[in-house]
Amino acid sequence: LRLLAAALLAAALPQSDDAVLRREAERLIAAYPDQLVAYRDGMIVWRDGTRMVFDDGKVKTHEEKLRHPDLEDQVSECYPKGPLAAPPGPGFEPGRVRYEPFFRKMYGGSSAEVRANLVRIRWAPSGEMLEVTRVNGVAEKLRAVGDALARDKAALPYVTASLGGTFNWRRIAGEDRLSAHSFGIAMDIDTRHSDYWRWQNSEKILPWRNRIPFAVVEAFEKAGFIWGGKWQRFDTMHFEYRPEVFCGE
Ligand SMILES: [Zn+2]
Question: How far is the CA of 241 from the centre of ligand 1 (A)?
């Protein structure tokens, strides 16, 4: 009976399915064509020959994925494009899982290394200059998002003043994981209209709240940026470049 239960459990888990793994690996490679070239012998192969294990074979909850991620965990949670039908439920945080060695190799492993890849772009809504990585064309993509938002009257009031910023080598508040801002791939829009999942020094997750119109979110999503408003631990001013988590479209 125990064997049968184990077999049933294994059958129910997509992690055990080679075809699913291959699909996920191919989605990751397709998202970063400048950097990744193949999935071979369970490894993601980089253009420079570096190999990274894709799947550690462990079955994890969302919280375990956050704390002990591998590359497979990073792409395993699909980010849905479009307006949210309902507030994000428990454990719904697509894109919040990041395998840090991947980002360190991609964008730089230290503040100085990331800085070496930063370029300045003009953010059209305010005319400010923002520092963003040029790796994967992120800077150009963000500039185009700004150009589109500058023409959108519904979106403009949320992306013009009190911008929260782009590059900042730092840990996520209350965690030892590096923030996506560390790699120059993230932007926080107008902080005055922003909502965040917790009060200072509390682990309690507040009820979901959002004041950012979908017109803003849509412009970022079209360019491969995900929105922190689609997480249970919401951060509605936050966007980051994560093309690998867009799936099922
Ligand atoms: Zn942010």
Answer: 11
